[in-house]
Amino acid sequence: MTAPDPDLRKLVEGYSPPNGVADELLQPDGRLRPVWRPLMRLIAQEEPEALAERFRRGDQYLHDAGVYYRQYSGSGSTERDWPLSHVPVMIGAEEWETLGAGIVQRAELLERVMADLYGPGRLVEDGHLPAEIVTRIPEWLRPMVGVPPRSGHYLHFLAFELGRAPDGQWFVLGDRTQAPSGAGFALENRMATGRVFPDVFARANVTRLAGFFRSFRDTLNGYRSQPGGRVGILTPGQHNATYYEHAYMARYLGFMLLEGDDLRVEDDRLTVRTIRGSEPVNVLWRRLDSSYADPLELNGASTLGTPGMVSALRAGAFTMVNALGSGVLEARALLAFLPRIAEELTGAPLRLPNIATWWCGQAAERAYVRDNLSRMMIGPAYSTRLPFDVDDATALGGRFRGTAHPSISDWLEAEGSQLVGQEAVTLSTTPAMIDGALVPRPMVMRVFAARTRDGWTVMPGGYARIGRTEDPTALALQDGGSVADVWIVGKDRVDPDTLAPSQTGAARYRKQGNLPSRAADNLFWMGRYVERADSAVRLLRAYHLRLQDSGLQETPLLAHVQGHLDGMGLSTERGVPEGLQELFDSAQNCAGKVRDRFSTDGWNALGDLSLSARALSRAESRGDAAARELSMLLRKLAGFAGLVHDNMYHSSGWRFLSIGRALERALQTTWLLDSFADPEAPRGSFDVAIEMGDSVMTHRRLYPVEANRDTLIDLMVLERENPRSVLYQLDRLRELEVMLPMKAEDVRMSDLARLILRTQTALSVAHPEEVTGAQLGGLRADLSAMSDELSARYLQ
Amino acid sequence: MPILYDIRLAISYSYSAPAGAHRTVLRMLPRDRDGQRVLRGALRVEPAEDFRRDSLDFFGNPRTELSHARPLSAVSFTFEGRLLRDAPELPLDLSCGLSELRAEIAAVHSIAPDSPHHFTGPSPRVAPDPAITAFAREATSGARSVRAIVAALSRAIHDGFAFDPAATDVATDPAQAFAQRRGVCQDFSHVMIAGLRGLGIPAGYVSGFLRTIPPEGQPPLDGVDAMHAWVRAWCGAETGWLEIDPTNDRWAGADHVTVAVGRDYGDVSPVKGALRSAGGHGTSHSVDVVPVRP
């Protein structure tokens, strides 16, 4: 017996779940469930400010880790902060074990159904499943019929959306078999929630998640058929709602993050284009919907896929996790037949039932639905949406949500075979802390299962979604709401576990695999855009400072600067013109495509730059005010450069980023000098050029004379100790190039290396007066040629 | 009386900017089926492919996968072969009525390629279209049996639509072809498929050839210069599949040679390629179907 605890009693008394629902925190008799006691005691005793401070720690973690999701609305999409509900859901280990057994049974059943639908088709022949349903489900992909999976299994990673009925029983709202998301987000929820309640977490015997991911990772690695074979995560790319998770899982598990365009089918082998050439891919964990995977044999309009992927699967060239076409199992209509199929195939009923579903293509079922409209949700039979993901073509409790039909009976008669009725569900509630009070909110929980060498294993935890209002019907979950961690609490002590190698052993090097060409391309261009933005900001600032000096009057020098800015696509109407904003956006866009290879700090710094520029671009400032804004951006740019230089691991990705910066800086400087070192240029042009090079002090120290063409060329082109000179960039390029992969066709050195070396040597021995305008033009051409050569060699 | 045909189908593409490494899926080889046997035949690719695999697709059509490793400025695919065609007389109409058809379809417990279930719902290129369904209902109001409905709809399309190769292209959807009442065999077939499905009759697409020069004393047909298309409809368990050519309003017979069958053009298009080409491209296409003199 624990001592009576007045704070805890008060907390529990203040918490009242709606009638007729199960509650996670309280037993039907109103008493606290034992697994919640340690957490609730802490919440009850903690001062409100201290509790708020805990929550802030969790939010800070999510912010620093850069966790976001992409939300789509009518006009486009935006990245949203992660909506964590800080109070985890607690489930006892014994209950979890029962639930897990039900999930494993369901996973095994789904594998058998899948094998039949893409194999002999006996379920239909024997009358257990209407042919009409199978042939009408868009995700039943005919080209995949008769293609056996290389691993011997169709399904490897599944999720189940669960709810708890008023009688306390768990049931499945939907099987997620296509490419389920959420496991990575569940990990992040765990990290954040662990920071909110580190003390409770340490003592509460919460089962750790790492073991689940470790065995899944090892299983996928085990599917490799050759020593150099790669395991990749196939993502639709940065515009996907859950791209963050794809990048996160790739980093966490040590897999390559790949887009369709990274891959090629050569003959009938699947390969990835890397900076070293093409490498075999043996396993793909697919996060892209099946029909988009191959424009040649599946959805011809897809731009996200790889032509020939189906062919490679037919040839048994690699393992697809899950097999293409697995989305067929998500169709609502199937849920009406699974219970009977389970009995037919396994001789046993489903231990974990699903939401009661009636296919209205059958007269008796249709009549039942019609007679029970008030407790039915009627919607598209072949949709793969979850029941609470209600669209306009749905009738709820006898009323239409959107499109009007004359009457529901007529609708059922006319389109019965395309409709299912699903029992309107009542969900359980779980505590959420809202405005300082613990209140009940409806929840659903996504649970994950992975196939390992020893069969299915269930992730000990989950991804709970918490409704925004108290409404216990599934509808509350439709418009957002929040998410929470799920703690499985046992009686035995749990040792900490992570996926990282053991801390006491020798440091082990984990080879990441070669950089995909597309990732290298994005890093290279991110470097170029950031550096181009740097040049633009400097020149714009020089313009506005001089504009102020001239009393906002036009001068020949201002016109000259403006001419150069025009060439860069930048207007002088305001401090931060649209063209500059676009450069920041382009840099951020490149970074967004390589989230798995780019640090969170770097990403945040770039996002901050883009946001600041956007805010400033609304100001109508000129002259001094504009110069101040630009100086602020310049400081932020310097901060970003510092991060890249001092903090980023010197991987091959970092090299391409650095090459992009060096090349762009050399190009910008050469271009600038071409016009500002011209003896015909207006008075003051030399000073602008020196200022652009951040070299006013250096010039004063090095040359006892006023700036002239020779001192300018010497300082900005030939002075290899000046980090803004062209020769400095060439030295840098040479250093970086040497570290890039050699190719078989190279004789001693690559053409790119020759080009760099030739230019570097010419500048090393040049006198300032030899670097004429024509020479500068030639230098620009050489630098452009380097960029082209680099692209052709590594980036395509 | 069986007819022996010599067949030549040539499709070629040229690119103004060389197209990079690419893969192609061809459905150009005529298939064996009831009343049709391929005696010999070969598909030639120029320039020669680097990789090739021949197999059958879901609907049993011969499918050829090719890849070229080097950029191409032009490529051609040519099938030449000999084939025996024997079209039986159309038997008496024993097909059921439309009201019985629904139950007859439901009684087919099969997802095998010939099952009518594949051909009732929307398919890649043919979506349900209320306007076409209304047209089909009106055009077939007097017909009793499913087969009579099929014949009536073919007649209505043939009579009401103009054959006009300039009016549509390969990407035209049935709704547009229907709205303008003109097009080519592909459009007529798609409109008819949409109409039949709208009435509840399973309907599919057949690609193939027409005999180039008609038998003596018969008028020339439309659609002989290129690949042709017509419609197959499932007329109940007893009758099964029947094929009809709405472009020429006649049941498919000894003059019709099948290459592939599917739900619509999307399942049977002769050349599908992933061409990575920056510039435009040109294409040409020729067909010869000549009876072999005994």
From TrEMBL, chain A:
Gene3D superfamilies: 3.40.50.11290. It comes from Pseudoponticoccus marisrubri. This is Uncharacterized protein. Residues 88-466 form the Circularly permuted ATP-grasp type domain. Residues 515-795 form the DUF403 domain. It comes from the Bacteria.
